[in-house]
Amino acid sequence: MQQLVYVVDDDQGMLDSTLWLLESVGLKGVPFTSGRAFLEACEANANACVLLDVRMPGMGGLNVQDEMRARGIELPVIFVSGHADVPIVVRAFKAGAVDFIEKPYNEQLLLDSVQQALERRAPVPHRDSRLAEVQARLEQLTPRERDVLLPLVRGHTNREVAEQLHISVKTVDLYRSRVMKRMQAETLPELVGMAIAAGLVDALALRG
What we know:
alpha/beta, five-stranded parallel beta sheet, 10 helices, about 10% strand
């Protein structure tokens, strides 16, 4: 069965460039400029994943994701957004998104994420090992790094974290970069995803 990537984005320029990128590595992209059009046309049993923009006129990406679940459409969802604030990221992951990528995106990161999402269409035994890797990275954090990690994935700014911990913003910046490096997270949404996978976020009072 041919692998498909449903691309849902109201920005025609972004839609075209994403389709071109997918085609350059032999993947077939199926474009939609609205969530409703996608929901009416997508095949629930397709060997596919979904690249879904968060903010679109009419029906936003999070609402599309909710409707997919209501209809029993279990295609892996990757959100792509220029507005990756923590509450949105958390809601997306908790509802089952497999990744959340910020615009403008790194092309290779997007392709890697799409490939991983397509692999998830079948039961994947390495999920447990991936969680074990995240847990192992968490255990390597120092107490101070963990102190910085928790408010970050709650959605607090560096300045707010500095005030909570009674340290300078510059020191928070330093610890934040260390946390990202130790956790092997390229972006804050990726870090939030790891925190959710490890069960940290459920215990947090999230903003938004």
